[in-house]
Amino acid sequence: MTSLADLRKSYERAELSEAASHADPLRQFEHWLQEAISCEVPEPNAMTLATVASNLRPSTRVVLIKGYDERGITWYTNYDSRKGHELAGNPYAALQFHWVEMERLVRIEGRVEKVGDLESDEYFHSRPLDSRIGAWASPQSQVISGRTVLVANAARFGAKFLLQPPRPPHWGGYRLQPDSWQFWQGRKSRLHDRLRYTLTPEKSWLRERLAP
User: Which is deepest, 61, 91, 99, 183, by most CB within 10 Å?
Assistant: First the structure.
């Protein structure tokens, strides 16, 4: 059996310097995301979402980014899920992208709010029919007796809505408004490059290098 303590990798693919990085973290993120897409890394749009419950216990899960702009990072989910309840009680969260093949991490922190109904409607109706039915069929994060519950729910809502399921009232988008970004590039000898962008009271970005 291989010892976990002996698993090591030397990171030597790229570097991240202040001179070569964008002053605007959103532009730096866009550059890295598009490179990840171009390099065909597996699921470049997957991000870990961390929330904290009222009892101060954190939880994480993987969600998919569905949009980004100056307003923030957007994803869609069930509002009645565990993450939905935790965000209702504590609207601050963290996101992380890990593009393993490129030896890169992006960490984003900020306040989360729901997107508007029109925006959620537009995205919902762009989804495949099976996914739209699935939003009705799955009582996300609730205990169920077996997979047959999901199959039966999907059949029931499919028969009810046919080809035009409306967006469920419990389903829609969230947007995280960043106040902190970190970009991490693996480097040799564990001397990694790590740049942090912090939003100042003047609404500009302070870029600093952190020790790895």
Answer: 183
